[in-house]
Amino acid sequence: MSPSLRPTTALLTLLSSGYALAQTPVADPGAADPAQSFDTVIITGTRQAGLKAADSPAPIQILDAATLKRSGQPDLIQALTQNVPAFTSDAKGGDAAALTTAARLRGLNPNHTLILVNGKRRHGTSNVNVTGGAFSGGASADLSLIPLSAIDHIEVLQDGAAAQYGSDAIAGVINIILKRNDQGGTVSFGGGQYYDGDGTSGNLSANIGLKPHEDAFLNLSVETKYHGHSDRSDLDARFAPPYLSAANANVRNAPGYPYVGRTFGDAAVRQTILSANGGIDLSGGTELYGFATYGAKHAEAIQNYRGTSTAPGVYPLGFSPIEVHDEEDFAFTLGVKGEALAGWRYDLATTYGRDYASVGNIDSLNVQLWKDTGSTQNRFYEGYLKANQTTTNLDFSRDFNVGWASPLNVAFGAEHRVDEYAIGAGEPASIYRGGAAAFPGYTPSDAGNHKRRSNALYVDVAGSPIDKLKLDAALRTERYSDFGSATVGKLTGRYDVAPSFALRGTVSNGFRAPTLAEQSYSATSVSPTTASVILPTSAAAARLLGIDELKAEKSRNLSIGIVAKPAPKVTATLDLYQINIKDRILQSGSLYGTLNGAVRAEAVNAAIVANGNSIPAGMSSTGVVVFSNAGDTRNTGADAVVTYADEYGRFGRVDWSLGANINQVKVTKVKGAPSQLNGQQFLDKTAISYIEDSSPAFRINLGALWRKNDWTVNLRENVFGPSSYYTSVNNVTYYENRTGTKFITDLDVTRQITKAWAVTVGANNLFNVYPDKLNSDYRQALNAAGRQNISQYASFSPIGINGGYYYFKANYRF
Length: 814
Prior knowledge:
The protein is mainly β.
């Protein structure tokens, strides 16, 4: 059967079979009318009270709790990826990046999307992505540490908003609104696994609303889940004829030979997360409120296999080290809001967040320690990562009658923020003479505490000077303790040409301050044959290479769009956008001191020594990777959303939806590299291709939610456009790795057994579609160079690397 016909056939089959099975008319409490999302009162992208999404002058998408629940895997990142076409997540990070899933909006960096919870800034992760590729540098908030069961809805602002919220809001804003229910609740459990039989998952969650006082509410959620390893590794040609050496001959006896490497797959994760959201109404219309989240996560990522010759006295069959993170994340906000003198509304709040990860390495060894002393441990404490953020906001707003078609809303406020980032050194055995295999511990030169303060003032005015016209203007100035200040503005407008048609647009400039992790992160990454040092630009050693310290990015955003209701049951939006970023902070490609045994740039080797990093013996290639303001980029694209809902009599009701994103990224300028790099560029062909081509050229989501009595069928077809990247073995010959257009079908069927109980079975990627495999010529070149070569697909594949996933869920409402 043609793949393009499968979704239609599946839908027709399920519609007919579901109708035949539907007997008892029980309402589905989890189903939501898509039209309701346009009637949701929003707080994102506006300071006006009572503004609905349908009337917003800026493009905003609403995801309600029912939509999030139907995502299959109980993870907020997966829910957003499946429902927001412009949102994509990393399929497989390398090293520590495998332990924290990164995601991004509109093909930009994860750091370009601001995350809010109940309108308050969320702290970032301590585990910065430094493995290179499409998500490099990402250190934004870890969305997987917020319980799905705690969320009332999510507001996704797909528009630059730095003038309203400050740094990071260049691609847009994701605002997570927590539940405020003061009664009832849910208990859910479920599980699943990939079609290939691995990646087994299980989850249990609960949410309850309480009324501790007549004028108070308290909403609590808890969620615990487990996700096992998956493995999509190919055979490791280094240990198969004709490349198998006599010294590694015993590898033939290793389990699974010749598939001895198991690193290309999901990390194993076990986590428990909690949330609380509460408030109490005091006298005079004042509300005291607070909310908090807590998460504890244990994650293990398998690293590259080391052959039997590495340490035959310790691991006679070779070994695969495992990198381990024990992470603790928490955040809390306490605030008070109400109405002060002369009708001014106020909101005063402080938010504190911290992410702490203890880094370990197990099933490993320190080869040099073993050779020098005859013994070595196999478990190492390698240090810690810590990111703290404290933010205090004071906001005022008031409506003024100035003779316009609507009151003029005037808002102003201030923000004080303190960011901290720290790296703790590992135990001596983890760093001795090159350190533990796979991931050496953080050295004393890597370790340090870094701190930044910033202060901001803003003003925002919004109103309708004439009927049918809405205008919103914002201005913000912000000063940082370590690199200066920025002043940015935004103008947004909407004109309702007719009751069923409106034009809208925005123009703004913005900025993004470098994260403290981008400025300060330092570590050594080791594979079986290569070693690379993450060299912070804040270090003196970076000056030996002629590399400057980081400065803030500057952006210009422009969008124009339409909102239409061409028929009573149809709503459509289309927004075109362009985002220009100057002095964009980018991770370089590998800047080699030694490449395949030959000296490439002596200054690089000198910088490694000056920074205090130790490279294990026997590495054929060594170098550094840096973050720098390496170039300028331009994103152009379009977002579209169409919804239609209709009743089909005895055949039930279907809510139809279409979402689409088209996105093109271009590097418009590349900064010249200093002479110390001996002709190597900050952005080589590989790095540029990650920026320009790793996101799907387009993405289309087609959805059909059918409901009939106590049956619900949700069918979603995701179309991912082509993506690609270039890579090289010697920085001379480059190979294109390309994945063509893919059709991914998601399906779930829910039966409402009673008013309280519902069960669901479903599948993500129903037809088990995989990305296209890597370029065979590239893989042969890796083999010829003696490089590790087990990855079959691009690690950033927008459709994942694991194929189909099937699951079941049960939900109890009370």
